[in-house]
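Quick one, tokens below:
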């Protein structure tokens, strides 16, 4: 995600299913406390947290 890849691209790179990637991405959002929101993009927020420690 930090490289800007889609779930499909991540799945292809790791040779796993897109569903597996979706489950792991959801787990990352949960661990970071990023609930679903219409006002914010959780992928961007997760990467920002990753970059800023």
């Amino acid at each position: 995600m930090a490289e800007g890849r889609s779930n499909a691209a991540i799945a292809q790179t790791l040779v796993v299913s897109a569903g597996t990637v979706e489950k792991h991405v959801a787990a990352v959002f949960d661990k970071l406390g990023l609930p679903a929101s219409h006002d914010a993009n959780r992928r961007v927020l997760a990467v920002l947290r990753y970059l800023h420690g």
